[in-house]
């Protein structure tokens, strides 16, 4: 089945209101590629302003709490994201799994919260360098998939992002063959658990994607798009990646 390509920018903790012009330029250019779904996930502070500045653009959060409300100082709930116009949320990014100690169970609960709030969810998985070097990358990632993917969801609203931790922000990228092997293994695990629905789910690659390597990575089997960090911060760097997906 033909899956629409999906290119998502993760701005991480970058961007003041002056950066909204970049988002406007990105969404304007993305309109030239109607076959590609494009989203930008800015810091929480820019979600509302970005929705207002780029009406029609898919804007998302980079995390959400698993509870809908409560005494969780500093946290943001999925219904709050939806309430200000977000349509997407990233969960399980390695900077949260490793930096904030989030477990597979935590990530699964956050994914369930995002889905319950009506958001599209991008659920991240990926192995550290030592695991890749020991030959255990596929086993490691499939364990994350088993532990963090919810049981019940619309396959068009839950995407997996495979992001090898050692490739994030480093300029290092796995071989296309290794990316295809991992994405095929993820698709196989999803098919074993969810049947035909796995064919509808999008599996994104993330980790040092740029305008020069995007076409090759996005052309690999079972690669349905990209989750992009550094190269998503400006239209000049991000739009070529969107074009490569078209
Ligand atoms: C990311 O953090 O999701 C990411 C892919 O970052 P970069 O593109 O900068 O490697």
Automatic annotation (TrEMBL):
Keyword set, alphabetical order: Cytoplasm, Gluconeogenesis, Glycolysis, Isomerase
Residues spanning the membrane: none
Reactions the enzyme catalyzes: D-glyceraldehyde 3-phosphate = dihydroxyacetone phosphate; L-erythrulose 1-phosphate = D-erythrulose 4-phosphate
Gene name for this UniProt entry: tpiA
Xref: InterPro entries: Aldolase_TIM, TIM_sf, TrioseP_Isoase_bac/euk, Triosephosphate_isomerase, Triosephosphate_isomerase_AS
GO molecular-function terms, A-Z: triose-phosphate isomerase activity
Stored Pfam families: TIM (PF00121)
GO cellular component assignments: cytosol
Subcellular location: Cytoplasm
Homology family: Belongs to the triosephosphate isomerase family.
Record PANTHER family: TRIOSEPHOSPHATE ISOMERASE
Chief place where the protein resides: cytoplasm
CDD domains attached to this UniProt entry: TIM
Chain sites annotated for binding substrate: 10-12, 169, 208, 229-230
GO biological process, one term: glycerol catabolic process
Function field: Involved in the gluconeogenesis. Catalyzes stereospecifically the conversion of dihydroxyacetone phosphate (DHAP) to D-glyceraldehyde-3-phosphate (G3P).
Catalytic site positions: 93, 163
Identification of the protein by name: Triosephosphate isomerase
E.C. number: 5.3.1.1
Enzyme class: isomerase
Known pathway: Carbohydrate metabolism; erythritol degradation; Carbohydrate degradation; glycolysis; D-glyceraldehyde 3-phosphate from glycerone phosphate: step 1/1; Carbohydrate biosynthesis; gluconeogenesis
Subunit structure: Homodimer.
């Amino acid at each position: 089945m033909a899956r629409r390509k999906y290119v998502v920018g993760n701005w991480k903790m970058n961007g003041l209101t002056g950066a909204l012009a970049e988002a406007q330029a990105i969404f304007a250019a993305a309109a030239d590629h109607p076959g590609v779904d494009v989203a930008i996930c800015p810091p929480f502070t820019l979600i509302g302003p970005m929705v207002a500045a780029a009406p029609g653009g898919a804007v998302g959060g980079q995390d959400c709490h698993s509870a809908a409300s409560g005494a969780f100082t500093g946290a943001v709930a999925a219904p709050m994201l939806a309430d200000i116009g977000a349509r997407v949320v990233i969960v399980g990014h390695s900077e949260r799994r490793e930096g904030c100690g989030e477990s597979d169970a935590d990530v699964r609960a956050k994914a369930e919260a995002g889905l319950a709030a009506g958001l599209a969810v991008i659920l991240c998985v990926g192995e550290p360098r030592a695991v890749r070097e020991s030959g255990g990358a596929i086993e490691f990632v499939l364990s994350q998939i088993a532990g963090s993917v919810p049981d019940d969801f619309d396959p068009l609203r839950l995407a997996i992002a495979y992001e090898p931790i050692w490739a994030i922000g480093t300029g290092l990228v796995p071989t296309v063959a290794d990316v295809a092997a991992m994405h095929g293994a993820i698709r196989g695990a999803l098919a074993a658990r969810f049947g035909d629905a796995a064919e509808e789910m999008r599996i994104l690659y993330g980790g040092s994607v740029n305008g020069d390597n995007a076409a090759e990575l996005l052309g690999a089997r079972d690669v349905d798009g990209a989750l992009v960090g550094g190269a998503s911060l400006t239209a000049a760097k991000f739009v070529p990646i969107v074009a490569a997906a078209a």
